[in-house]
Design a protein that fits this description.
The structure holds 2 protein chains of 2 kinds. By secondary structure, chain A is α/β, with parallel strands linked by helices. Chain A has 16 helices and 9 strands. Chain A has 3 domains: about 10-215, NADH-ubiquinone oxidoreductase 51kDa subunit (Rossmann fold, 3-Layer(aba) Sandwich), CATH 3.40.50; about 225-305, Roll (Ubiquitin-like (UB roll)); about 310-400, NADH-ubiquinone oxidoreductase 51kDa subunit, iron-sulphur binding domain (de novo design (two linked rop proteins)). Chain B is α+β, with helices and mostly antiparallel strands. Chain B has a single domain, classed as Alpha-Beta Plaits, CATH 3.30.70.20. Classes of the chains: A alpha/beta, B alpha+beta.
Chain lengths: ~400, ~70
């Protein structure tokens, strides 16, 4: 890391971190380390920030993967002062990367909030995260004497991080999704234009604002540039958070983190709303384009391995039961359909040999998809269907009263 | 001139599955296992021109005001 005092340009003041360790390059959560590693907070006007994000190709890191520039650009410049919300509510049990980021690099997230907020002329800045994650952020804000960012505690529920749930919680209501007919960027918190970005997205935004799109693109692939945080868990160890270049193969991620591929039966990619990949699909690259051919998505950067001694159908049945219990109980198809999927799936996983069960799971999955105010039914259905595909031969075994793994 | 497309939005947080909309729009909606409306498009049901009045009735008469028409 070099610090050249003679140059005036912010870009040249501190070189961008080399290699893949970017978000954690400061090495310590304190403000001094942060400033030494990354230099001062750059100023960005709206047009320039949107352009830099567009050039960088940064996509959202909260799960949906929406282009970061596009969300920013959809905040109308109509004179209404917008609201910026940093979303660190990591309701997904398999994800810990936002917590790791807020504990180890809170100043980078704060930078992202301030840069986005200033560029938009924001009226209010908010950060929403679990109680344990708010503590390091509060300490960081105190170090800076920065008081304008309001901290809000996210409840420990799966759907609390859904964008409309976040806005609802900050407005003082329950952290449950709302019916969405208008974009939050047009009408969000108290009717104001509201930009909700994941905390990792904002941290990358803070680095792109300093070091530029070319620096950002110097790792990752052309279509999925940059680094990203992943949470790896499963049969060998974890959960552990890593920063990886986007687009490396899943097998490379596993091997380089010390996972013995022979011990892996499958991997759940993208989280509980994600997709099971059989072991022969794990040479797919961890990016939007790389995972699309195998029907998976990066989601919030989650990879969970399933050990070769574990039954994928039983694991799925357990997750489906959890997801059914995490319904906000607002939408009929979700309240009724998710427990139905979980129940039929559990029969298949745990001994019922009725040959119509897979068909019934598929029917119920199709029935709930697209019929909720949020994507919880869709994600739950996706998981169930992907398990039927990835463990197809084990489904046949179960219907014959056996299991490929356990019996 | 392009044909304007009317859609009917279902607010699932309001819908109680009373089923009036299914009675009024049998061409477009059926009931799922639990009585909630099912139609092509999930939460945004495309309304053909000949059913626009029936859709307006469904939206106006929905006891939980869960339906909204968008043109």
């Amino acid at each position: 890391m070099t610090t050249d005092q003679s140059t005036v340009s912010i870009r040249d003041h501190v070189a961008g971190p080399a290699g893949t360790t970017r978000l954690f390059a400061a090495g310590s959560a304190d403000f001094g380390s942060h400033q030494a590693a990354f230099g001062p907070l750059p100023a960005m006007d709206r047009a320039r920030l949107i352009d830099e994000l567009l050039q960088s190709g940064l996509d959202g890191r909260g799960g949906a993967g929406f282009a970061a520039w596009q969300k920013l650009a959809s905040v109308p410049a109509d004179g209404r002062r917008p609201v910026v919300v940093a979303n660190g509510a990591e309701g997904e049990p398999l994800s810990q990367k936002d917590a790791a980021l807020l504990h180890n690099a809170p100043h980078l997230v704060i930078d992202g909030i301030l840069i986005a907020g200033r560029s938009l002329g924001a009226k209010e800045l908010h950060l929403f995260a679990g109680a344990e994650q708010l503590a390091p952020v509060a300490r960081a804000l105190k170090e800076r004497g920065e008081v304008r960012i309001r901290l809000h505690e996210a409840p420990d529920t799966f759907i609390s991080g859904e964008a409309t749930a976040v806005v609802s919680a900050i407005s003082g209501s329950l952290a449950v999704p709302g019916d969405r007919t208008k974009r939050l960027t047009n009408s969000g918190l108290n009717g104001r234009p509201t930009l909700v970005h994941n905390v990792e997205t904002l941290a990358h935004l803070a680095l792109i604002s300093r070091f530029g799109p070319a620096w950002f693109r110097s790792v990752g692939t052309g279509s999925s540039p940059g680094s990203r945080l992943i949470t790896l868990s499963g049969n060998t160890a974890g959960p552990r958070v890593y920063e990886i270049p986007t687009g490396v193969r899943l097998t490379e991620i596993l091997v380089s983190t010390g996972v013995d591929l022979h011990s892996v039966r499958a991997a759940l990619v993208g989280g509980y709303h994600g997709t099971w990949l059989a072991v022969d699909q794990l040479d797919a690259r961890f990016s939007k384009e790389g995972l699309a051919p195998v029907g998976a998505r990066t989601g919030a950067g989650i990879i969970m391995t399933l050990g070769s001694g574990s039954c994928g159908l039983a694991a799925t049945a357990d997750i489906l039961a959890y997801l059914a219990g995490q319904s906000a109980r607002q939408c009929g198809p979700c309240i009724n359909g998710l427990p139905a999927i979980a129940s039929v799936f559990a029969r298949l996983a745990y001994g019922d040999t009725n040959g119509k069960l897979p068909q019934e799971i598929s029917r119920l999955a199709a029935l709930v998809t697209g019929r909720g105010s949020c994507a919880h039914p869709d994600g739950t259905a996706r998981l169930a269907l992907s398990a039927l595909a990835a463990f197809a031969s084990d489904v046949d075994a179960h219907l014959r009263g056996r299991c490929e793994v356990l019996r | 001139m392009t044909e304007r497309k009317v859609t009917m939005h279902i607010d699932w947080t309001r819908c109680d599955g009373r089923g009036l909309c299914v009675e009024l729009l049998p061409e477009l909606l059926t009931r799922d296992d639990w009585g909630y409306p099912v139609g092509r498009g999930g939460s945004e049901i495309a309304i053909p021109q000949n059913l626009e009045y029936a859709a307006q009735d469904a939206a106006a008469l929905c006891p939980t005001q869960a339906l909204r028409l968008h043109k």
